[in-house]
Amino acid sequence: IDVILDRHSRLNTSDLQARLKTLDLPGGIFNTEQVTEFVDQMQVYEGAMYEISTKLEILDDEFQVRFSHDPIHHMERRLKSVNSIIGKLERKGLPLSVNSIKDNLFDVAGIRVICNYRDDVYSVSNYLSSQSDIQVLRVKDYIKNPKQNGYRSLHVIYAVPVFLSSGAHYTPVEVQFRTIAMDYWASLEHALRYKTDLPDAKLNEHSQTLLDCARSLQNIEVQMQNIHRDINGAPQVGEA
Ligand code: GTP
Ligand code: MG
Questions:
Q1: Are 198 and 207 in contact (CB under 8 A)?
Q2: Which residues line ligand 1 (CB under 6 A)?
Q3: Are residues 16 and 88 in contact, defined by beta-carbon separation less than 8 angstroms?
Q4: Which atom of ligand 1 approaches the CA of 187 most closely?
Q5: What InterPro entries does the database record attribute to this sequence (predicted)?
Q6: 153 CA distance to ligand 2 centroid (A)?
Q7: How far apart are the CA of 153 and the centre of ligand 1, in A?
Q8: Cβ atoms of 178 and 150 closer than 8 Å
Q9: Which of 70, 72, 79, 162 could form an SS bridge with 8, CB 3.0 to 4.6 Å?
Q10: Average pLDDT, rounded, for the chain
Q11: Model ipTM?
Q12: Which ligand is nearest to the CA of 92?
């Protein structure tokens, strides 16, 4: 892979304090001590995110050397913003504290791995999942079982040890594995989802069209995967 897109901005303590002041928090949670604890925890999430993306780069390099094939087209990684973290805790009616983040949010550190073919999605994720120093906490396979709206991707939550002076801290990282076609589709669907000013009839029409597009893209992917397998001497797959 030549590109890793970093989608997160560096955490800034004064921004954070300004944002927290706008919230009317009962009992004065998020005092200076809590802010420091929060910034420390975000650094742990960042470390976990780098560890996983380094593992993925190493796998991609190995494939390139051994098979002259890049399974990973590119990666994107991001830390959830303070606003999104607070918004999600509020939405779920969870307490606003660092412990609550650690106990309830598994997507503070996130990596999106965009692969060339569907076979690559499964080989890269299987090799990563079998590494002995990390744990698989949860798998959601929306490729085998697409969502109603047509969304497809493989989501895996890993726990990875981040070593601090106090020892190993197992930290969750959400990895979304998908193909270029799945990513292309998900970007447009995401844009539509936040387009709330469209009339309902239009939204429904677009959602239906997107569902058709998801099916078409899936067929195209199977055909292209087969050509790719044929070129590389691997067995063919049937329609998914
Ligand atoms: P939440 O994180 O609270 O949504 O629950 P979850 O972690 O159980 O959700 P899930 O694993 O199903 O999805 C997590 C992420 O996948 C979302 O934050 C999105 O980035 C992506 N995602 C899931 N469903 C869709 C979808 O229908 N469309 C698009 N564009 N992205 C989706
Ligand atoms: Mg999530």
A1: no
A2: 107, 140, 147, 149, 151, 155, 176, 186, 189-190
A3: no
A4: 30
A5: GTP_Pyrophosphokinase (IPR052366), NT_sf (IPR043519), RelA_SpoT (IPR007685)
A6: 13
A7: 9
A8: no
A9: 79
A10: 90
A11: 0.95
A12: 1
Question: 4-23: per-residue pLDDT in tens?
Answer: 777 756 666 677 767 666 66
CA 104 to ligand 2 center in whole angstroms? 10
Please list, in sequence order, all residues whose beta carbon lies within 8 angstroms of the beta carbon of residue 209, skipping any fewer than 6 positions away. Answer: none
**pLDDT, tens digit, 9 for 90 and up, residues 25-81:** 554 456 777 888 899 999 999 999 999 999 999 999 999 999 888 999 999 999 999
Of 174, 189, 221, 239, which is the active-site residue? Answer: 174
**Tokens describing residue 170:** 């197992």
Amino acid type, 70:
D
Compute the half-sphere exposure of residue 43: CA atoms within 13 Å on the CB side of its CA: 10
Q: First CA to last CA across the chain, in angstroms?
A: 28
Which residues 6+ apart lie within 8 Å of 192 measured at CB? 203, 206, 207, 210
Report pTM.
Answer: 0.89
For ligand 1, atom 13, name the residue with the nearest CA.
155
